Amino acid sequence: MLAQRIVDVVRTQQRSEPLDGIATRLGEENSFRSQEPPGRAAGVSNPADLDRQRYTSAFARAFDAALQQVAAGDRLRLCCYYVQQLTLAEIRRLMGEPEATVSRRLSRTRKRIREEVERDLRDRHRLTPAEIQLCYEYVSDDASFDVSQVLAP
Prior knowledge:
single chain, 153 residues, mainly alpha, Arc Repressor Mutant, subunit A, 8 helices, 76% helix
Protein backbone atom coordinates (compact mmCIF):
# COMPACT_ATOMS: atom_id res chain seq x y z
CA MET A 1 0.00 0.00 0.00
CA LEU A 2 1.29 3.41 -0.95
CA ALA A 3 0.74 5.09 2.41
CA GLN A 4 2.68 2.34 4.16
CA ARG A 5 5.58 2.63 1.67
CA ILE A 6 5.71 6.39 2.19
CA VAL A 7 5.69 6.00 5.95
CA ASP A 8 8.42 3.36 5.75
CA VAL A 9 10.63 5.80 3.81
CA VAL A 10 9.98 8.54 6.37
CA ARG A 11 10.63 6.19 9.29
CA THR A 12 13.88 4.98 7.78
CA GLN A 13 15.11 8.53 7.33
CA GLN A 14 13.97 9.66 10.79
CA ARG A 15 15.82 6.86 12.52
CA SER A 16 19.06 7.46 10.68
CA GLU A 17 19.32 11.25 10.89
CA PRO A 18 17.54 14.27 12.39
CA LEU A 19 14.82 15.94 10.35
CA ASP A 20 16.86 19.09 9.68
CA GLY A 21 19.54 16.82 8.16
CA ILE A 22 16.96 15.37 5.79
CA ALA A 23 15.78 18.83 4.77
CA THR A 24 19.36 19.90 4.12
CA ARG A 25 20.08 16.79 2.10
CA LEU A 26 16.85 17.14 0.10
CA GLY A 27 17.68 20.78 -0.59
CA GLU A 28 21.07 19.76 -1.97
CA GLU A 29 19.51 17.04 -4.13
CA ASN A 30 16.87 19.43 -5.43
CA SER A 31 19.45 22.08 -6.28
CA PHE A 32 21.46 19.44 -8.13
CA ARG A 33 18.38 18.33 -10.06
CA SER A 34 17.45 21.89 -10.94
CA GLN A 35 20.68 22.39 -12.87
CA GLU A 36 20.21 21.94 -16.60
CA PRO A 37 22.06 18.97 -18.05
CA PRO A 38 24.78 19.72 -20.59
CA GLY A 39 23.43 20.36 -24.06
CA ARG A 40 19.92 21.29 -22.87
CA ALA A 41 18.73 24.80 -23.62
CA ALA A 42 17.98 26.94 -20.58
CA GLY A 43 14.29 27.20 -19.78
CA VAL A 44 13.33 24.02 -21.66
CA SER A 45 11.83 21.45 -19.28
CA ASN A 46 11.72 17.74 -19.68
CA PRO A 47 8.06 16.77 -20.39
CA ALA A 48 8.40 13.66 -18.19
CA ASP A 49 9.45 15.88 -15.25
CA LEU A 50 6.44 18.12 -15.83
CA ASP A 51 4.14 15.10 -15.83
CA ARG A 52 5.77 13.80 -12.64
CA GLN A 53 5.27 17.16 -10.95
CA ARG A 54 1.66 17.39 -12.14
CA TYR A 55 0.85 13.88 -10.94
CA THR A 56 2.53 14.26 -7.55
CA SER A 57 0.87 17.60 -6.85
CA ALA A 58 -2.54 16.22 -7.91
CA PHE A 59 -1.99 13.24 -5.61
CA ALA A 60 -0.93 15.47 -2.71
CA ARG A 61 -4.09 17.59 -3.06
CA ALA A 62 -6.31 14.50 -3.31
CA PHE A 63 -4.57 12.85 -0.34
CA ASP A 64 -4.92 15.97 1.79
CA ALA A 65 -8.62 16.28 0.89
CA ALA A 66 -9.21 12.62 1.75
CA LEU A 67 -7.48 12.99 5.13
CA GLN A 68 -9.61 16.03 5.95
CA GLN A 69 -12.70 13.81 5.70
CA VAL A 70 -11.38 11.23 8.16
CA ALA A 71 -13.11 11.17 11.56
CA ALA A 72 -11.13 12.44 14.55
CA GLY A 73 -10.71 8.99 16.17
CA ASP A 74 -9.53 7.42 12.93
CA ARG A 75 -7.16 10.32 12.35
CA LEU A 76 -5.76 9.83 15.86
CA ARG A 77 -5.16 6.13 15.16
CA LEU A 78 -3.38 6.99 11.91
CA CYS A 79 -1.23 9.59 13.66
CA CYS A 80 -0.34 7.21 16.49
CA TYR A 81 0.54 4.40 14.13
CA TYR A 82 2.34 6.25 11.33
CA VAL A 83 3.71 9.41 12.94
CA GLN A 84 4.30 8.37 16.55
CA GLN A 85 5.12 4.79 15.45
CA LEU A 86 3.12 3.23 18.28
CA THR A 87 2.31 -0.47 18.15
CA LEU A 88 -1.25 -1.73 17.95
CA ALA A 89 -1.03 -2.73 21.62
CA GLU A 90 0.03 0.79 22.62
CA ILE A 91 -2.77 2.33 20.57
CA ARG A 92 -5.18 -0.17 22.16
CA ARG A 93 -4.26 1.10 25.62
CA LEU A 94 -4.50 4.72 24.49
CA MET A 95 -7.87 4.31 22.76
CA GLY A 96 -9.33 1.83 25.24
CA GLU A 97 -10.42 -0.64 22.59
CA PRO A 98 -9.33 -4.17 21.64
CA GLU A 99 -6.21 -4.54 19.53
CA ALA A 100 -8.18 -6.28 16.77
CA THR A 101 -10.54 -3.30 16.63
CA VAL A 102 -7.59 -0.91 16.27
CA SER A 103 -6.22 -3.04 13.43
CA ARG A 104 -9.61 -3.26 11.66
CA ARG A 105 -10.25 0.47 11.97
CA LEU A 106 -6.79 1.34 10.67
CA SER A 107 -7.32 -0.98 7.73
CA ARG A 108 -10.78 0.42 7.02
CA THR A 109 -9.50 4.00 7.23
CA ARG A 110 -6.62 3.28 4.84
CA LYS A 111 -9.06 1.70 2.39
CA ARG A 112 -11.43 4.71 2.57
CA ILE A 113 -8.54 7.14 2.06
CA ARG A 114 -7.33 5.19 -0.97
CA GLU A 115 -10.85 5.12 -2.45
CA GLU A 116 -11.28 8.86 -1.89
CA VAL A 117 -7.89 9.66 -3.39
CA GLU A 118 -8.61 7.59 -6.46
CA ARG A 119 -12.10 9.07 -6.82
CA ASP A 120 -10.69 12.59 -6.57
CA LEU A 121 -7.94 11.88 -9.10
CA ARG A 122 -10.44 10.30 -11.47
CA ASP A 123 -13.29 12.82 -11.12
CA ARG A 124 -11.67 16.15 -10.31
CA HIS A 125 -8.33 15.74 -12.05
CA ARG A 126 -9.70 13.59 -14.89
CA LEU A 127 -6.93 11.00 -14.68
CA THR A 128 -7.15 7.56 -16.24
CA PRO A 129 -6.44 4.41 -14.18
CA ALA A 130 -2.96 4.24 -15.75
CA GLU A 131 -2.26 7.85 -14.76
CA ILE A 132 -3.52 7.19 -11.24
CA GLN A 133 -1.08 4.27 -11.02
CA LEU A 134 1.69 6.63 -12.15
CA CYS A 135 0.70 9.01 -9.34
CA TYR A 136 1.22 6.23 -6.80
CA GLU A 137 4.55 5.26 -8.33
CA TYR A 138 5.85 8.83 -8.45
CA VAL A 139 4.79 9.61 -4.90
CA SER A 140 6.24 6.38 -3.53
CA ASP A 141 9.59 7.30 -5.12
CA ASP A 142 9.41 10.91 -3.90
CA ALA A 143 11.19 11.21 -0.55
CA SER A 144 9.89 14.76 -0.05
CA PHE A 145 6.26 13.58 0.23
CA ASP A 146 5.79 13.55 4.00
CA VAL A 147 2.63 11.94 5.36
CA SER A 148 3.48 12.96 8.94
CA GLN A 149 3.12 16.66 8.08
CA VAL A 150 -0.38 16.08 6.74
CA LEU A 151 -1.38 13.92 9.72
CA ALA A 152 0.17 16.12 12.39
CA PRO A 153 -2.50 17.79 14.54
